[in-house]
Amino acid sequence: MPLKRDPHHQRDHHESAATEIDQLSEMLSQDQSKHARRLLKSMHPAKIASLLERLPREQRVAALHQIDARTEPKVLAQLSPALRTQLTWDLDADSDSSRDTGSDPDAGSGEEPETQLNLVLDALDQGKLKRIAKLFRKLHPARIAGLLESLPATERARVWDMVESERSAKVLRHLHEEVRRRLAAEMDLEHLVEAARGLEPDDLVDLIQDLPTATGRQILDAMDQRERERLQSMLSYPEDTAGGLMNMDQVAVRGNIGVGTLLRYLRLREELPPNTDKLFVIDRRHQYQGILRTERLLTARPEQSIAELMETDFEPVPADQSSDAVAQRFEEEDLSSAPVIDADGRLLGRITIDDVVDVIREQGARALTGMTGLDEETDMFAPVLASSRRRAVWLGINLITAFLAAWVIGLFEGTLEQVVALAVLMPIVASMGGIAGSQTLTLVIRGLATGQLGRSNTRILLLKEMGIGLLNGLLWALVVAALAILWFGNWTIGAIIAVAILLNLLCAALSGVAIPLLMSRLGIDPALAGSVVLTTVTDIVGFFAFLGLATLILL
Amino acid sequence: MPLKRDPHHQRDHHESAATEIDQLSEMLSQDQSKHARRLLKSMHPAKIASLLERLPREQRVAALHQIDARTEPKVLAQLSPALRTQLTWDLDADSDSSRDTGSDPDAGSGEEPETQLNLVLDALDQGKLKRIAKLFRKLHPARIAGLLESLPATERARVWDMVESERSAKVLRHLHEEVRRRLAAEMDLEHLVEAARGLEPDDLVDLIQDLPTATGRQILDAMDQRERERLQSMLSYPEDTAGGLMNMDQVAVRGNIGVGTLLRYLRLREELPPNTDKLFVIDRRHQYQGILRTERLLTARPEQSIAELMETDFEPVPADQSSDAVAQRFEEEDLSSAPVIDADGRLLGRITIDDVVDVIREQGARALTGMTGLDEETDMFAPVLASSRRRAVWLGINLITAFLAAWVIGLFEGTLEQVVALAVLMPIVASMGGIAGSQTLTLVIRGLATGQLGRSNTRILLLKEMGIGLLNGLLWALVVAALAILWFGNWTIGAIIAVAILLNLLCAALSGVAIPLLMSRLGIDPALAGSVVLTTVTDIVGFFAFLGLATLILL
After folding, report:
1. Domain CBS: where (chains A, B) (predicted)?
2. Residue A274 contacts B where some CB pair is shorter than 8 Å
3. CB B91 within 8 A of CB B61
4. Helix, strand or coil, per DSSP, at residue A463
5. What's the domain range around B310?
6. Could you report the predicted ipTM of this complex, rounded to two decimals?
């Protein structure tokens, strides 16, 4: 095998190499595949082809491994047919043989399962990048996207180069926003435009919204005029509205034609866009009239008219409806697609279930990550510095609340000096309140999100939560008091902690209901900051009740 | 209006009423609508009809308000046509007039928006239950389900009676599991079976799985044999597998027929099940062969054969695949439906996107609520006692961890006695570690859930998280140290808290990665218990590092 594993790169050497071919040859023989890749990337395909011809046979394969999938066909086209055949044959043999032995040289532990991720990492490790290209050709674009997301930034860029041009659009479409933005930022404009052409308009709109304005502009400029106008009208709607979700691939028909005519027209089209469970009926002025289900069409007689078969009571989606509301409607009514109209009732496009599923998935992720201030962190391998900065903000907010709690404790320094057992027990009071409060908070946040909690039933919910707080407060107050008495042999401390826990759990129930309601009234997302505010309250109330009672009674 | 609002029920009176008609009349005139409802519920429809005939005109309407929607048609059928017309006319007038004035008598604050929930609550308040029935007739079953979920248990049962028989199945289908189970438990068997007949097999299977075994048995017995066998085969798959998700309404065709024949057959069927974006092709022995997209069918020429048009590379879903895996595939490949096969490759049924959306929604909810031990609490208005019990378990687990932390503090009682400032500052160290750790934990849990985190990239993630821990640790250690020095004027305490915070943030990064990985290796769901274990670790390490260092240095 041409490449020996040698972890210590000898950087200083290749300065002395006179010509590019010598440089390349030296890099390859010294396992400096990274440098080789960079060098090859800077060359024209024809130039690479001429270099390849002059390299010894085994180095040719090594060099080819370092050429990205989008340049490879252009290089191969410049080679003589004989050399081309030999080279692809060598490459195949090389990839296969190393794949068979792929598990023993580096993987270390023999137990490790042969996952696709391991295959990719092994191939990266050994510089056999074409093996990745080969694997990718067999995988679904969504799976490739998943693998890319599982890789740290440098490895991701190298692997990304192994995705063929015609598939890179589909892979981009399946990537998380943040990862997509980062990869797209690294692509050169030519490839980006090529990939953009392969995207569905709605995904392309998402991508353009994620890119720097100038890059988005350039992509738009590269489209033909009709496509550009379409995209611009879609870009005019915010991302989180129906207009931002919609696609423009709907099949719209006029009501006055017959089933036979329509079927002939569809047959001419040959293909329908995915998720076409209904066609949309419009009039002469493009006004939305109703829907025609394809299943209805399949079971209709050719002489029936569209107007006869269409359903006019299907409520279209206004373009400015929030995507959360759209998701709720799709879910409640089990829709696969729905028409989108503008304020004048004109048909603009359609929303399909696949985009709604993404919205629902994101809602779930937002609820989970929002609670820890990770709202935007969708890339597991974002650069350390970027991640640190994002998380630091949340830690800073938390620090303020922690100092508030410390300040409350500080008020009772004198008491703590005299009865140090209080310092030992006080975190218990705060912690129980925090947990009970988050339980209520979670329920209320969910109720608000699903719209089940309105002004009219909050009083009932509050009463219920206070009831639960009372029951659990009594139960755990007794348990904690008993344990505290056993530990410190002091009945008064037991009584004090019992009262403090009961008070804190009641206050936790109250805050768990009141805080999210108040926040949502003020236009703040309770899922994002609710738990910090809540634990601040339960900490402060817990410490204050416990230490305050102790000061009153013990001193 | 017949019913005057009188909040003080005069319960003792109606004992004296001799006959049912007197009882009823008295109850109605004294606004004891609850008693009237109960009395009417116990009577045969014919009996109620005869009572109605004898009541004065205005009491008739009041009585009719209290009859549930499922009994009403039977009662009306027993009345003379003239009386029937008059009664429905009166009822309409009554409902409308009270609806118009609905906002002023009780609502109190004029600002309150006229939501459907408010309408329902007002109607309940005034005993005008038929107004609810009228509202419900205009609403989508999913919306009715949402309203039901927004109501406390007693009100929910009264409102549920206003849902017409033929729609109750559809409403049941849209209810959350827990609420559905509770309502179904209250229905009498006859109505339950009637409702069950209106459910799709997959929803019915869910319902039966939620009901007590005996009740489920009775529902099965009421079905005809073919339906029963079908249901039993579906019941044999666990709820969280493809088999538990699937429905049996697929359209399966043989490959050897032509498009023309198929279209004629479909036209005879007249209707296709919802979400039919593909038909499934099977052979003589019911073996799955491939799929035929309906859009392909629409654009095909009648003389083509199914075998020619079908796609054989569509991977069917094995019945024992987990529902999470099914959801991931639907999401990645943007599917609307997929065939389910058994181990022998026979076509069993199909999974549709609407059920997958439910799975995805539940995953999101589980991630959010699991963290606070609310895994199963889907009913916002579950009885206080049931909710208390469920949440008490989580509080108990938390108490153990809180006592562990207290025990660590207790080890340093001597130190705390001498330097009480430590007691003031120690919650800050623990709290910063807890927040930083949850950030990492959340990311890892999501990575595990999406399958992006495998053994091969954990080391890289760990390094990245440790890097973030180091950066944020240094930053916040300095900030906290500065604040502590300002507060207590003691440089040593500042240095100690700085080191403790740095240590705790590094340990938080390590635990945030290690704990969920270890738990998932042990088969425990990290989303459920991960955060408790994590905060236990960060509390203990935080207190131990801070107080331990202080003991070494200050004493």
Report:
1. 310-368
2. yes
3. yes
4. helix
5. 245-370
6. 0.73
